[in-house]
Amino acid sequence: MSARPVRPEIIHPSLWRASQLARGGAACVDTGHAALSAELPGGGWPVGSLTELLLPQPGIGELRLLLPVLRRLVPSPSSGQPAVARRSVLLIQPPHVLQPLALNGWGVDPGGVVLLRAARQADAFWAAEQALQAGTCRLVLLWAGVGLPGAAQGRERLPGEGAGARQGGVRPGAGAAIRPGALRRLNLAAQAGSALFFMFRPSCDADQPSLAPLRLALAPACGGVRVAFIKRRGPRRDELLFVPLAPSPVLLDHHVRLDRRVSAFDPVAARRLRTAAIHA
Amino acid sequence: MSPPSTLLQPVACALLRFTPDLALAPESIVLMDVTASLRLFGGIRRLRAQVRQVLAAFDAAPARCGAPAVAADGRPAAPLAAPASAGAGAAESAIVSVAASGPAAWMLARSGRGGSALTRRSWRRALAQVPLAVAPPARPFADWFRDLGCETLADLRRLPRVGLKKRCGPAVLDWLDQLALGHGDSATGFMPYRRLELPPEFDAAFELPDHIEHAPALQWAAQRLILQLCGWLAGRRQDVTAFTVMLAHERRQHRTPSAGRLLADGPTALPITLGAPSHDPVILIRLVQEHLARLILPASVISVRLKATRFQAARGPSLDLFPEPGGTPQDHAQLLALLSARLGAENLLAPAPVADHRPERAARWAPLDQAASGRPAAARGGFPDAPLPRPAWLLDAPIPLAMQGPRPFYGTPLRLVSPAERLDCGWQDGGPVTRDYFVAEDESGVCYWIFRTQDADAPGWFLHGLFG
Q1: Which of A4, A265, B96, B101 lies at a 20 to 30 A Cα distance from B162?
Q2: Which of B326, B339, B348 sits opposite A130 (nearest CB)?
Q3: How far apart are CA A264 and CA A272, in angstroms?
């Protein structure tokens, strides 16, 4: 017997060292962002499991992070690609009104999306569970406690209350605590099907325990998002990962960015530098 | 002999799901030939378990006239009489018996014991336990047989045939022979089978034993009617698309000028539409459950009625060798119907954009059924391409922004990072807007869609959208 330790992946594909990313688990779908895929176990978003994305507030680029997946599932008719399935993308309790024009501008067919409003969080969780168990949806997005004064819940409130809450703005309110049992049910339902399941939660829930195998915290950044890996099957990573997001709403740039965290060799940053030089 | 059970017809109707060869035998017994259904339902044991489940739904109501029982048989060599018979004795609960022939199953069910007699041995054992009074032709001579010490059918078979024929006539012997041979011959009058007549329309009612105040408590009554509906659908090879549950209310005193009169409220109608045609009781029961959970009753309910309003010829099962991984479109339609049953149809939305420059009017979402029927933008070949970026999230109402010097302020000072986009429209329908839209970025890099307006009533900067 040799003294060299045996590589664990030779023993069984489900084994990995603490310094490695997990492999051989469930099927994964490419995220479309090379830097992010390289840091995720399996090389992409896990299919059939609960994935948590923690947001400080809605509108920091969370949909553009999922855009490559959306484009693949419900491409717009003009792109010529065949749709995988009609109406197989379910958005449950989104924080605000979704603009169909924006989706269309991104190359996503808005007709392929079904939006669900729920009066109570329990109803939203029930709907997600049913959708996952039925196994006919390809992508389920669930917002839990993100942007409370939004479209879904603001309408259910009393007029006075709703106005007050709306004045509070888009800044996140304290989300109602999610029972661990509810998360467990959702994860089980996700395992029953083969859908991608993302749950958006407020950033303050990062310290609450969760059994989601993958938890990412998103933070806003110029031209993209910064991703923190709170939990993943793999080594701990403390530094944030910058993920550039493709259709940037920024059209003018009067100033050259002084963001040292972005590499000058980053193609997005390089393009921005060129644009800035032209405008200057 | 027990009076004919009022449960017999509904139970027989519900049991049509398992086999089309179903007959109503005398003395409240339903006979089913399940030989051809064994493989579909996974064998005689599983079939019997499913039959028991159906009967359990009917047992939930205390029935005075006794409840039925079912017997089934798994010997494919019995062409005529491989039965499941539902026998209703005086017992409160259903008795299920399984035997290799119709008369044998009838006998087992009628004895009140149930059980199965599929082999020769178990059949002999059963005969030794069935009391003599079960045999209809032997009943007039019950006292005489008792004096002989003859108590079970096995004792009866041991008596000399010639003497028995002389004393009791040929009927008793004929009956015993039929039992042994397994021929149920309706011509002799021994077992006058009656086929279940199915009405062309399904409309069944159920009187509740008690007044029910809360809609979710009606679930078991509705379940019973749905099982009947599914049997009816299977018997007529139909799929239901829409049905109505009618709840009849108690008469109660109204405080009207003509006081003192008892007026009955009109029945509450609960129309239920399925996402895709189906005859699966699981889907129907879940759908009704969600509808009942949302219902608030105006008065207590005394009876439930179920009427199939739209149905169509049933689709055959899918013949694909490999089923699609994402489920069929029918499955997805059923899911959406279930979701809309609980959340309300108005909360299940699909885009129905309007050709308007004002974003709050253009970004219209309509309930799924309405959006599917008329999708003007999609019908004309897609959406117009927006020249400038549009935010994914649009706020319900624009939020006025504070100012810090010349710059709008939201959390941090905002910097404009796009040229202005002028929207000046709406003069024709009374909602004129004059806005200059900008993309603004705050110090942490979040982009906002803000506009500046010079309207007299509320000039200033407003936040209107978020770039998802």
Answers
A1: B101
A2: B339
A3: 10
**C-beta separation of B13 from B236 below 8 A:** no
Contacts of B183 (CB under 8 A, 6+ apart): B80, B81, B101, B103
Residue A233 has pLDDT above 70, yes or no: yes
Fill in the DSSP letter of residue A3: S
What's the mean pLDDT when you consider all of chain B?
Answer: 78
Q: Residue B349: list chain A partners with CB under 8 A.
A: 114-117
pLDDT tens digits, B161-182 = 898 888 888 888 888 887 776 5
Q: Do the chains contact at A99 and B359, CB–CB below 8 Å? A: yes
d(CA B365, CA B362): 9
- State how far the Cα of B283 lies from the Cα of A209, in Å rounded to an integer: 35
Residue B90 contacts A, CB cutoff 8 Å: no
> Which residue ranges of chain B lie beneath pLDDT 70?
1-5, 59-93, 181-193, 252-265, 323-326, 371-387
Q: Model confidence over B428-448: pLDDT tens digits? A: 887 788 888 888 888 888 889
Q: Does B391 touch chain A (CB under 8 A)?
A: yes
* ipTM for the assembly: 0.77
pTM above 0.80, yes or no: no
Average pLDDT estimate for A70-75: 86
Reported as type and span, the H/E element at residue A126 is helix A121-134
* Cβ–Cβ under 8 Å, residues A99 and B394: yes
Nearest-Cα distance to chain A for B294, in Å, is 12
